[in-house]
């Protein structure tokens, strides 16, 4: 007999808490970015110019810089050696834009220095993607096949790779921000008064990764409570 779950089971509170944490972090980073996006740098350089300057200064000559669509879609791709800045970052001369551009350059520096956590994260990506995609179908099949605990446990284990990816991401992102602040503190891009503003932007951005890890942990905890161990329901 297929087990029946009430539509509003108590574990939904974990999903709701995770969602609220993620929404709060997202709202905070957007408000912080918008606040310091209004502050134009005295050196009047754009995010793209800042990225190009930092890469040259760090003797990194095999990384390209391009602009992409979107808002706060900035990223660094270690496989393609491409640093992509959103238009709101690449074309802006704000403190926020320079901070974000420097952060992405921090990832390029990590790659150039063979920063181990970055390599580990890159290696985990395929497994994490497969695991998060396969987890729920496996759990569902396990429930449908007379509560096959082996299938269910494999599904939960597969989902745990998503959490592992989030946890490995944390030191990567915080380290990139530390590298960015160190570079910006040298004074060629931002003044001494502007550096603390950029630091606030990067701190707010880092909180989104902490929130994502917490939300993923709460989702995994919910799966364990519902389906793990001896939670078979007749």
From TrEMBL:
<keyword id="KW-1133">Transmembrane helix</keyword>
<feature type="transmembrane region" description="Helical">
    <location>
        <begin position="123"/>
        <end position="145"/>
    </location>
</feature>
<feature type="transmembrane region" description="Helical">
    <location>
        <begin position="151"/>
        <end position="172"/>
    </location>
</feature>
<keyword id="KW-0812">Transmembrane</keyword>
<feature type="transmembrane region" description="Helical">
    <location>
        <begin position="201"/>
        <end position="225"/>
    </location>
</feature>
<protein>
    <submittedName>
        <fullName>Peptidase</fullName>
    </submittedName>
</protein>
<dbReference type="InterPro" id="IPR007395">
    <property type="entry name" value="Zn_peptidase_2"/>
</dbReference>
<dbReference type="Pfam" id="PF04298">
    <property type="entry name" value="Zn_peptidase_2"/>
</dbReference>
<feature type="transmembrane region" description="Helical">
    <location>
        <begin position="12"/>
        <end position="29"/>
    </location>
</feature>
<keyword id="KW-0472">Membrane</keyword>
């Amino acid at each position: 007999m297929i087990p029946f779950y009430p539509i509003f089971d108590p574990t939904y509170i974990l999903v709701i808490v995770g969602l609220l944490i993620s929404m709060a972090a997202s709202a905070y980073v957007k408000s912080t970015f918008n606040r310091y996006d209004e502050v134009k740098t005295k050196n009047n350089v754009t995010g793209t110019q800042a990225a190009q300057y930092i890469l040259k200064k760090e003797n990194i000559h095999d990384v390209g810089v391009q602009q992409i669509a979107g808002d706060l879609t900035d990223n660094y791709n270690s496989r393609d050696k491409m640093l992509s800045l959103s238009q709101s970052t690449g074309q802006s001369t704000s403190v926020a834009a320079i901070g974000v551009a420097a952060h992405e350059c921090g990832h390029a520096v990590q790659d150039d220095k063979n920063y181990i956590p970055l390599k580990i994260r890159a290696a985990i990506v395929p497994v994490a993607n497969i695991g998060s995609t396969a987890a729920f179908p496996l759990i569902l099949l396990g429930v449908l096949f007379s509560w096959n605990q082996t299938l269910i446990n494999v599904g939960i284990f597969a989902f745990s790779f998503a959490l592992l990816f989030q946890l490995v991401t944390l030191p990567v992102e915080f380290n990139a921000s530390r590298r960015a602040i160190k570079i910006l503190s040298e004074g060629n891009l931002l003044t001494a008064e502007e550096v603390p503003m950029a630091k606030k932007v990067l701190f707010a951005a880092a909180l989104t990764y902490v929130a994502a890890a917490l939300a993923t942990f709460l989702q995994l905890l919910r799966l364990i409570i519902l389906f793990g161990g001896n939670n078979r329901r007749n």
